[in-house]
Amino acid sequence: MLYLLAVLYNSSCRGLMLKTLSEASIVESLYKKLASAGFTVYKNYRVLGYEIDVLALENWSSRPIIHVFEVKTRVKPRLIKQLYRRIPFSDYIYVVIPYTLLTHVYRKIERVFGIVIYYNDDFYIVKQPEFLNNGKNVCKIAIEFSGPSSCSLM
Fold this sequence. Notes:
By secondary structure, the protein is of the alpha/beta class.
């Protein structure tokens, strides 16, 4: 968790240009940022029929720590339900949003979830998530549905 914080906080400002954002472009930027920092990263990863925008594995402990990132460019009513569905297979869950949505989302997101803002092509954690200790279930699910060879998480 601390390493992830360092990766997302140690970012440089690149001017004040604003641009139109798409979820796909933010997912791609986050994927590149985490991969360049040494995380094992998956985009659009499917678990039990749910698609996770970005799943990052922090492999510096006895088992991988699972960070789940859901990217949103608009706030939709189903956001909270979507985040809750990720709890059974996550250690940390974050919603990633453009900085313009921060005040709206901050009030709606419960303590258990973290908030990452996307601003000027960089990412900043503005609210820490709680540790859920459910990441161990990802490998169990992968083995159950795809066989042992598909589980490269451990």
